[in-house]
């Protein structure tokens, strides 16, 4: 029943905070900073893609055992 | 008796009331309802008992002296005079004072249950569940035809269109509502929601009463899913609101609390990108400066510096040889050829030395490149992106990523041995 999301925004943000901190402190080696850079850019891209491929889903209403599209009267 | 018009009749009645001394100073008991604190400072209310009701007003001059905060359902002892409001053709009590007398039954029930549940710890802040930052599945318990559900769905879609919204319809007022709400709460808790909103629009204290029922309070408390309540208007706080993880002032407010703002989240990620790029660019810039400094060092810029002194020595020797050669010019050709051969040897030895030094420097530079290390057959072991440089950091069953210069595999550790030459 649980919706499987390919990117967990919460985890991604936590990791991005770490990466940004490490890169901004600048105490990492060049090799390591390249890895961090690649990881960070990849994470941002994944999250951004996930955010932008939103398709407006209809709200559902539970009727008995089944879910039926539910329209809001605007 | 004949009256000219309505106003004359009402004025007559007014005089009748005023003439009656008994009506000038009345004291009676009743329960407050339809309470309205007007912005002028006057208080309008109805006083009622099981059988009857009477309108009442307390003017601001008296209202200011009132010690208690009036609420609907409060049982009071009232004092004042009864008079006719001639423009409306109604009679009402002009209150001089109100005192709380016991309490109205609903009010009393509310206070009793609130106290009991508070003492049991149902409202404890420590037990409030944290709300998810990015919910992907949101359950809403509300009446399917109410304004509340419309406000909630509109707001959720605007702010966070990634979320799936599922409405669990329920009665939201009346006797049957209590059981219906409890059912919906229990069911919603099994549906894998990240957060649940329990909401209805405004109504009278009687309309909202099911949210002051103990069964609803206990059902909310038993929930494993975080729940936000928004019952009635901002001023209505029900027991359900106290038990919920968070109370929102309105249905729209509940939807706003439940979700992040989509545009802000996108903005936040692009901020991350900018900061990552800037941070990395600065590191690169520093590395380039360092690189340039090394590259500008005289030995790398002019490798001939490495053998310049030797060369000068050789040149000197050469010169001396040339001198000798000139001095010995009259000696045999054979001897000259011999000298020439030796000079050639010295030159070629020097060239070899120069080549060797250059090779040494370039292989030293190459060995600093991690890819070269990998190309020599070494591999890089990482766990969760962190380089593992000691077997002590590894446990059996760890998932490890091993990278060679040409690719990467993920492995699982099945066996571990302590090495005695690791130190």
Question: Which features would summarize this protein structure in a list?
Answer:
heterodimer, A: 74 residues, alpha+beta, two-stranded antiparallel ribbon, 2 helices, 2 strands, 14% strand, rod-shaped, B: 423 residues, alpha/beta, OB fold (Dihydrolipoamide Acetyltransferase, E2P), Rossmann fold, 4 domains, five-stranded mixed barrel, five-stranded parallel beta sheet, 13 helices, 14 strands, 43% helix
Overall domain count of chain B: 4
CATH topology of the largest domain in chain B: Rossmann fold
Helix content of chain B: 40-55%
CATH class bucket of the largest domain in chain B: Alpha Beta
Please give the largest β-sheet of chain B. Answer: 5 strands, mixed, barrel
The poorly predicted ranges of chain A are 1-5
Write down the overall geometry of chain A.
Answer: rod-shaped
**Any idea what the CATH architecture of the largest domain in chain B is?**
3-Layer(aba) Sandwich
Percent of residues in β-strands of chain B: 15-25%
Give your account of this protein's structure.
The complex is a heterodimer of chains A (74) and B (423). With 74 residues, chain A is of the alpha+beta class. Chain A has helices at 9-25, 30-52, and strands spanning 59-63, 66-70. Chain A has one domain. Chain A contains two helices and two strands; from the N terminus they run ααββ. In chain A, strands 1-2 form a two-stranded antiparallel sheet. In chain A, a hairpin with a 2-residue loop joins β1 and β2. In chain A, α1 runs antiparallel to α2 (30-52). Chain A is rod-shaped and about 60 Å long. The two termini of chain A are 29 Å apart. Chain B is of the alpha/beta class and 423 residues long. Chain B has four domains: 6-103, Nucleic acid-binding proteins (OB fold (Dihydrolipoamide Acetyltransferase, E2P), Beta Barrel); 108-260, Rossmann fold (3-Layer(aba) Sandwich); 298-368; 372-412, no CATH class. Chain B is built from 13 helices and 14 strands. Chain B has a five-stranded mixed beta barrel. Chain B has a five-stranded parallel sheet with strand order 7-6-8-9-10, sandwiched between helices. In chain B, α4 packs parallel to α8. The radius of gyration of chain B is 46 Å and the shape is elongated. The N and C termini of chain B lie far apart (121 Å). Chain A binds chain B through residues 1-3, 5, 8-10, 13, 16, 19-20, 22-24, 26, 28, 30-31, 33-37, 39-41, 43-44, 47-48, 50-52, 54, 56-57, 59-63, 67, 70, 72-74, and chain B through 132-134, 136-137, 144, 149-150, 153-154, 157, 161-162, 164-169, 187, 191-192, 262, 265-266, 268-270, 272-273, 275-280, 282-284, 286-287, 370, 385.
